Amino acid sequence: MPSRRTLIASALGAFLPLAYAQQAATRVVRVGLFANTPEPQWEAFRRTLREHGWVEGRNLVIEERWMMGDARKAAELAKSLVVLEPDVLVASSSTQTEALRSLTSKIPIVFLLHADPVGAGHVASMARPGGNITGLSQLMTEVSAKMLQMLHEAVPRAMRIGVLWNPSTPTHPAALKAIDSAIERLGLRAVMAEAKSAEELPSAFATLTRERVEALLVVPSPLAFRERARLAELCLAHRIPGMFGFRQNVEAGGLVSYGVDIQDQIARAAVFVDRILRGAKPADLPVEQAMKFELAINTKTASTLGVAVPQAVLMRADKLVD
């Protein structure tokens, strides 16, 4: 006959799993979100977390920090999140990832638009990140070369191509190497211009105009996304057809864009967060590559600039803005 102690232990054994499950269901987790701007696309992050059982006001708190395109704020904003010791940190790009990485090797970090996580030293490899960082790559090195090719197809007469890049973006040097190779392969000539802030954009465009560029490739960065309206205005004012990395740049008045579907990346990043909140280790979660890319063209801007985008290119566009 079982002893009283055995019966009690058996009862506790049956009860404890249920108690732990209830505790997990009611515990409040904290997610630190460090991104560029509070865009509508971030609703996809909240929606996906809700679908996985994490609901703000019930068992989830999201702490937000917005860089607003100014890389000079990165260190301060990152520190204000890390000191809160959230369960997971979310970084939108390599700029935010680097700022967070420099402050913690323990708190899990999920990036969603990293251009080159291996090249930047943020993960050991795509298959085995090996540390506290993982997430989704937007393949900027490869995409930047593709952007140049698409720009050449959209504006085939342009031979002198301006390249606007941001020295404060960690992954831009690698992207520039890919662009240089594509420039040489296509028989074009590149004119480099840099801008680390919105205040430096007019000077960069003055350089591009002085060098008589016929089209412009803007390497994707938080600054390029944040200042999309200003970039569109400058392109129109200087009559330079521009290629951008985000559809939102085209919606703001830029000529053409080719890049990842940001909303899809945001939703997929939320799945990473859910897995980590349920016990997965970043070191064991392979970095995933972008799956959805989109080509967008602003036909009104094309008309304003007098650019006749070939019909074959227009037919390939995922979105036409007029």
Regarding quaternary structure, how should these chains be classified?
Answer: single chain
Look up the CATH topology of the largest domain: Rossmann fold
Strand order of the largest sheet: 7-6-8-9-10-12-13
| CATH class descriptor of the largest domain | Alpha Beta
Terminal Cα separation, in Å? Answer: 83 Å
- Using DSSP, what is the number of strands? 13
Order of helices and strands: HEHEHEHEEHEHEHEHHEHEHEEHHE
Q: So, the CATH homologous superfamily of the largest domain?
A: Response regulator
Question: What is the typical, i.e. mean, pLDDT?
Answer: 90
Separate helix tally: 13
Radius of gyration (Å)? 23 Å
**What does the main sheet amount to?**
7 strands, mixed
What portion of residues is helical?
Answer: 40-55%
Please give the CATH architecture of the largest domain.
3-Layer(aba) Sandwich
Q: What fraction of the residues are assigned to beta strands by DSSP?
A: 15-25%
Count of discrete structural domains: 2
Structural class of the secondary elements?
alpha/beta
Low-confidence stretches: 1-24
Shape annotation: elongated
